[in-house]
């Protein structure tokens, strides 16, 4: 059963003492993801405030 979940190793994914480790996400992608998360958090906060305001009538 464990053979079904075997992930073959590839040189690009292998750890290398001289190169550190492989990270497929660039700094720009990480920054964009963080900015998007902040915008989504803000939108959800506004939705919750709107629900509270609507509930007060």
Question: How does this structure look, described?
Answer:
By secondary structure, the protein is mostly helical. The chain contains one helix and no strands. The longest helix has 30 residues. The radius of gyration is 22 Å and the shape is elongated. The termini are far apart.
Provide a concise account of the structure shown:
With 57 residues, this protein is mainly alpha-helical. The chain is built from one helix and no strands. The longest helix is centred in the C-terminal third of the chain and has 30 residues, at 27-56.
Largest beta-sheet details: none
Let me know the average pLDDT: 81
Molecular shape: elongated
Strand-residue proportion: under 5%
Strand-and-helix sequence, N→C?
Answer: H
**Content-based structural category:** mainly alpha
Care to count the β-strands? Answer: 0
- Helical region count? 1
Layout of helices and strands:
Elements: H1 27-56
Keywords:
single chain; 57 residues; mainly alpha; 1 helix; 0% strand; elongated
């Amino acid at each position: 059963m464990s053979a079904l979940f075997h992930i073959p190793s590839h040189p690009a994914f292998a750890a290398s003492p001289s190169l550190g480790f492989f990270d497929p996400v660039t700094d720009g992608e990480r920054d964009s993801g963080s900015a998007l998360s902040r915008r989504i958090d803000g939108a959800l906060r506004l939705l919750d405030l709107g629900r509270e305001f609507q509930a007060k009538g």
